[in-house]
Write a structure and sequence with these properties.
Blueprint lengths: L17 H13 L4 E4 L2 H6 L1 H9 L5 E3 L8 H14 L3 E4 L6
Parallel strand pairs: 1-2, 1-3
């Protein structure tokens, strides 16, 4: 048996329309007005990243999709620079563990 613990994961929204209903409420709960979308190239190709970015609308401070597997220090440093330059006040992470 495998057991996984994700202590920072407070809520999981699932089901039809969950993304559209939950994302704005979650952003408001955190007080984020300009989140940066951090995602993967595969989710860009699938169209899901575009869908999330469209839901963020003008609130979206930008999109970063170059975090490689295992989150290399150089990629994380670039992300920090992108975050600072964008004027973001939060991060929406869309993707796997590296993101």
């Amino acid at each position: 048996m495998q057991t996984h613990h994700w202590p920072a994961q407070q809520r999981v929204h699932a089901g039809s329309g969950a993304l559209e209903k939950a994302l704005p409420k979650e952003l408001d709960a955190f007080g984020w007005r300009r989140p940066l979308l951090v995602t993967t190239n595969s989710l860009i190709r699938s169209g899901l990243a575009d869908r999330v970015q469209a839901l963020l609308g003008e609130r979206c401070a930008g999109r970063v999709a170059d975090i490689a597997a295992h989150s290399p220090v150089t990629a994380v440093a670039r992300l920090v620079d992108d975050y600072r330059r964008s004027g973001a006040d939060g991060v929406v992470a869309l993707g796997g563990g590296s993101v």
